[in-house]
Amino acid sequence: MPTTAPFESLHLVRARGVPPRRRYSHRVGPTVLFDALSIFFRAHHALPPMNTSRGEPTSALYGFCSLFLKIVRERNPAGLAFAVDAPEKTFRHGRYEAYKATRGAPPEGLYEQLERLEQFWSSLELPVYRVPGFEADDILATLARKLREAELPTLVVSGDRDLLQLARGSVEVLFTGARGKEAVVYDCHKVTARFGEAWLAGPCGWFFSNARFRRPRRILRWVKGQTC
Predict the structure, then answer these.
(1) Do 150 and 201 share a domain, yes or no?
(2) In terms of domains, do 143 and 169 share one?
(3) Contact partners, residue 184, CB within 8 Å, separation at least 6
(4) 146-155, pLDDT tens digit by residue?
(5) What is the pLDDT of residues 171-181, one digit of tens each?
(6) pLDDT, averaged across the chain
(7) Structural domain range at position 205
(8) Using a CB cutoff of 8 Å and minimum separation of 24, what contacts does 204-212 make?
């Protein structure tokens, strides 16, 4: 489950360096927060292999940029930011040594595209948040909480179901979905209607390995205490 990262320097981001808004659109959209690597990896698996004339792989980069530009065009965001995992181990590794130990190495060709992705972010001059010891999920949870407390419309974009937990109040989550499926926007009510009372206990099962959450009834009592 995403935790609140212990840093208070986060500011409410505003868009800079993005394509101009359509002149006929006067409605300012939500602040959009991107779970950057989740989207990037999902694009790699969703699209067929693509390469430049020099043989440089581009499929993940193409998918990421296409989604980003689509959201900017359609949502007319008031602010934009990316959250990225830092390379260091997180506090979860200290609590559970085998955390993500079974995760394999990234597919071949992704490292080259990651360098290009960094160049893309740099060209936009938008905030890219990395916090040593924490995951992108934690950063997004912190940003979403700050924006929700300010009662500002917010859209979290991710291919990770864990982040559906953030859908409450003024915060919605755009789940990019599996290959061949349409993306779905979830608010708190849609999440509970779709996944029921166990919507926190399911995708975040690793969190409940903590001793006080090992019994299913205790898990559900805790979930019921969470409000939209």
Answers:
(1) no
(2) yes
(3) 174, 175, 177
(4) 999 999 999 9
(5) 999 999 766 67
(6) 75
(7) 196-228
(8) 204/1, 204/162, 204/165, 206/96, 206/99, 207/1, 209/96
